UniProtKB/TrEMBL annotation:
Coiled-coil segments: none
Swiss-Prot/TrEMBL keywords: ATP-binding, Nucleotide-binding, Transport
Domain ABC transporter, chain residue ranges per copy: 4-235
Listed PROSITE patterns: ABC_TRANSPORTER_1, ABC_TRANSPORTER_2
Protein name, UniProt field: ABC transporter ATP-binding protein
SUPFAM superfamilies: P-loop containing nucleoside triphosphate hydrolases (SSF52540)
A UniProt-annotated Pfam family: ABC_tran
Any one GO MF annotation of this record: ATP hydrolysis activity
Signal peptide segment: none
């Protein structure tokens, strides 16, 4: 059985006078340790789907299973990283990183030590007692990653976590997150508008069409790219070839819309 299975997912948003179909008949599976990106035009339901995978939203139709159970029963094993870091400004970086452990009642000397060691591994040694306002945007996102990883989730859901950063910082963080997830053998689902980011970080790219949101095509990233860092992937011919193929599909979807 696959680690994640989504079967015939549909979701509707209701108002007093109308019904908006965000997702229709979406089915896919993701293996443990796989990195999958969701891309597509605005309105294709990517973020809605991520919310369903997280258990924050129940689908109107169909079902999702994560490791054989519904997401709402697996919340302690799911980490969510967003575009904004949402660090608490009145708490130190150490307090922010440990807050998930505290809420999950997992905070003990061993888990605290592990979380703070991870903070050092990602280049934030010495900032534990500082406050978020004292850090750059890239450093804040690293702290948010440390907070997410502290609870040792099996699944990471990434909702455009690099889009608010300058390009150089974004590329560095892509490499960092890629290396961390591979080293810890985590499963990840990334929502992004950046096609290059999707290809360079992923094992597979799921392309969605809009109105209503539905799975249009699935693209396998060549093995020769998967072993490289996201930065190095971008210089490969296979990357350029796949970029052009998916770009043409995106243009076709825009024309249909």
């Amino acid at each position: 059985m696959s680690f994640i299975t989504a079967e015939n997912i549909g979701h509707h948003y209701f108002t007093p006078s109308s019904v908006k179909t965000a997702l229709k008949d979406v089915s896919f599976s993701i293996e443990e340790g796989e990195f999958v990106s969701l891309i597509g035009p605005s309105g294709c339901g990517k973020t809605t789907l991520l919310s369903i995978l997280s258990g924050l939203l129940m689908p109107t139709d169909g079902q999702v299973k994560i490791d054989g159970q519904p997401p709402d029963l697996q919340k302690n094993m799911i980490g969510y990283m967003l575009q904004q870091d949402y660090l608490f400004p009145w708490k130190t970086i150490e307090e922010n990183v440990l807050i998930g452990l505290k809420l999950n009642r997992q905070l003990e000397e061993k888990t605290k030590e592990s979380a703070l060691q991870f903070l050092q591994k990602i280049g934030l040694e010495g900032v534990e007692k500082q406050f978020p306002r004292q850090l750059s945007g890239g450093m804040r996102q690293r702290a948010a990653l440390a907070r997410t990883m502290a609870v040792n989730p099996k699944l990471l859901l990434l909702d455009e976590p690099f889009s608010a950063l300058d390009y150089q910082t974004k590329l560095k963080l892509e490499d960092l997150v890629f290396d961390i997830l591979k080293a810890y053998k985590k499963t990840a689902v990334l929502v992004t508008h950046d096609l290059g980011e999707a290809i360079s970080m992923s094992d597979r790219v799921l392309l969605f069409a809009a109105n209503p949101g539905r799975l249009h095509k699935v693209f396998e990233v060549p093995d020769e790219l998967r072993s490289l860092s996201p930065f190095d992937v971008r210089s490969q011919d296979a990357y350029s070839d796949l970029f052009r193929i998916i770009w043409k599909e995106l243009e076709t979807l825009e024309e249909i819309k």
